[in-house]
Design a protein that fits this description.
Layout: H1 7-26, E1 29-31, E2 33-34, E3 37-53, E4 58-61, E5 67-72, E6 79-80, E7 85-91, H2 93-121, H3 127-149, E8 156-160, E9 165-169, E10 177-178, E11 185-189, E12 193-199, E13 212-217, E14 224-235, E15 242-247, E16 258-274, E17 278-281, E18 284-291, E19 294-304, E20 309-314, E21 322-323, E22 336-338
Parallel strand pairs: 1-22
Antiparallel strand pairs: 2-21, 3-12, 3-16, 4-11, 5-7, 5-10, 6-9, 7-8, 9-11, 12-15, 13-14, 13-16, 14-15, 16-20, 17-18, 18-19, 19-20
Helix pairs in contact: 2-3
Length: 339
């Protein structure tokens, strides 16, 4: 005999089930999940520096004679082509007189040598006398050649750019009188500008030449890609850091620009989890995994942080997802539901 259940009782039971479900949902936290997996990511270290000419990419123009600056044909910061005039220099009269004296000495030595040859032919001089006269000619010729190479024979000299580049310094002004060898202009070869940054000495072994670099102007702009081209073998006495020169595409950065540089320093291996899934609690780190409909807290060690993934190490279960959104709202053992 089938028992008839009153309609009122059925409605009451249905209402109780609905209330129980609503209460369960209200007591849980809505979350999103992701699956952790083992892997490696590039480890980046950060340094700050500025763009400067490389030590082997600059040339300083000078004259090996005293004189006066007659004209400046460019200004600091100017882009120049190979052979372009940079400075006009007037050699001092004292240097010119030295050249003239060397020239006169050579002329006199040649005459004495010719006379010695004639006297030797007439047996009025010895071979030793001729040898001494020829030596005097050679010495006078060498002295005159040296004067000519140093520019003493040119009253006015025009110094030109030895290659395409940028004028980085002009330490003189028109009318200045300079001593032999005084710097008149410095030119950096195009493409020989580098960004020099300081890194912790403990990181030096992790940054070999050729390491990838990401450069960002402190004034703003898109990042640039570069490479480490030189790592110092000693500390910078001013910063107590190790200087690293970063190369970048020619013309992309101007001399003097300040930059933030991220250098690749090997790889970090561990569990890769979304950055938002790692929760900080009293300077400790934890990740919540979902087991059934409950959250399970797992203590981890943060090996490397950063978007989009952090690298952590701990007793994670690779079969269980980690909580991403909602991780900071949940407690160990708390009920969860998918969003």
């Amino acid at each position: 005999m089938r028992r008839i259940v009153p309609l009122a009782l059925l409605l009451a039971l249905a209402g109780c089930g609905s209330a129980s479900t609503d209460q369960q949902a209200e007591g849980s936290v809505a979350i999103t999940r992701a699956v952790p997996h083992r892997g490696s990511v590039t480890r980046w270290i950060t340094g700050y520096g500025s763009a400067t000419p490389s030590s082997n990419g600059t040339v300083t123009l000078s004259v090996n004679q005293p004189g006066q600056v007659a004209a400046l044909l460019v200004t600091p910061g100017a882009m120049v082509r190979a052979g372009q005039p940079i400075v006009t220099f007037a050699v001092a009269p004292s240097a010119l007189s030295g050249f003239e004296s060397a020239s006169t000495t050579l002329t006199a030595a040649i005459k004495q040598r010719d006379t010695a040859r004639q006297l030797l032919a007439q047996q009025l001089a010895t071979r030793d006398q001729l040898a001494q006269a020829e030596k005097a000619v050679a010495d006078a010729q060498a002295a005159l050649t040296a004067q000519r190479r140093e520019g003493a024979g040119q009253p006015v000299q025009t110094l030109r750019a030895p290659f395409d580049g940028v004028v980085t310094a002009i330490p003189i002004a028109i009318g200045d009188r300079t001593q032999p060898g005084a710097p008149l202009a410095t030119i950096a070869r195009q493409g020989a500008i580098v960004v020099t940054v300081g890194i912790d000495p403990a990181e030096r072994a992790h940054v070999p030449p050729g390491s990838a670099a990401r450069l960002t102007r402190l004034s703003g702009g898109d990042p640039l890609i570069g490479r480490a081209i030189r790592i110092d073998g000693q500390l910078n006495p001013a910063t107590h850091l190790v200087d690293v020169d970063i190369g970048f595409p020619a013309g992309a950065i101007l001399t003097g620009e300040a930059l933030r540089v991220e250098l690749a320093a090997g790889e970090t291996t561990g569990w890769l989890v979304p950055h938002a899934s790692v929760v900080t609690v009293d300077q400790d780190y934890r990740v919540f995994q979902v087991s059934g409909a409950r959250a399970r807290a797992v203590s981890v060690k943060l090996l490397q942080g950063g978007a989009p993934n952090d690298v952590v190490e701990g007793l994670l279960d690779g079969r269980l997802p980690v909580i991403v959104e909602g991780a900071y709202q949940i407690e160990d053992g708390g009920a969860v539901r998918a969003r």
